[in-house]
Amino acid sequence: MENRGEKNAWRRGAGLGLLLAMLAACESGATNPEAGKSASSATPTEFQAGEAKFTANCAACHGSRGVGTKQGPPLAHKIYEPNHHADVAFQRAAENGVRAHHWEFGNMPKIEGVTAADVDQIIRYVRWLQREAGIY
């Protein structure tokens, strides 16, 4: 027959194991934004050109699917919703660069080689990501 101390030790060990498993699951989702991605969140056809342009010109700093990196902020974030950062703000940022004002990533350089039409497609893709994230 087990004594009370052994039962408590077993419960603490099991609880700690469960906690560690939960933390590992949360950590893997936090560092891998694709981990929780379902088939239903595949990019619709009408946003795929913008996604390709985003990947080529923006993702190095703003992350895959706009989740941010150590080099740049997440664009799939409430601070970039249309009521706070209108589409024209994205156009200006790509054309002229922008001084750091919300985050501690430094200034954003202007993006060479993208046209206003390219940025329009990128914006449509980013707005779709924001809607998917429930931002607006």
Task: Write up this protein.
With 136 residues, this protein is an all-alpha fold. The chain has 2 domains: 1-36; 44-132, Orthogonal Bundle (Cytochrome Bc1 Complex, Chain D, domain 2). It contains 5 helices and no strands. It has helices at residues 4-31, 45-57, 59-62, 87-96, 116-132. Helix 2 (45-57) crosses helix 5. The termini are far apart.
Q: What is the CATH-assigned architecture of the largest domain?
A: Orthogonal Bundle
CATH class of the largest domain: Mainly Alpha
Helix run count: 5
Beta-strand percentage range: under 5%
Helix-strand sequence: HHHHH
Q: Give the tally of β-strands.
A: 0
Question: What gap, in angstroms, lies between the N and C termini?
Answer: 59 Å
The largest sheet is: none
What name does the CATH topology of the largest domain carry? Cytochrome Bc1 Complex, Chain D, domain 2
- Based on secondary structure, the structural category is mainly alpha
Number of domains: 2
Low-confidence spans: 13-40
**CATH homologous superfamily name of the largest domain?**
Cytochrome c-like domain
Q: What is the approximate shape?
A: globular
- Mean pLDDT value: 81
- Helicity level: 40-55%
What value does the Rg take, in angstroms?
21 Å
Sequence-ordered SSE layout with sheet pairings:
Blueprint: H1 4-31, H2 45-57, H3 59-62, H4 87-96, H5 116-132
Helix pairs in contact: 2-5, 4-5
What's a concise summary of this model?
The chain is built from 5 helices and no strands. It is an all-alpha fold. The protein folds into 2 domains: 36 residues; 89 residues, Cytochrome Bc1 Complex, Chain D, domain 2 (Orthogonal Bundle).
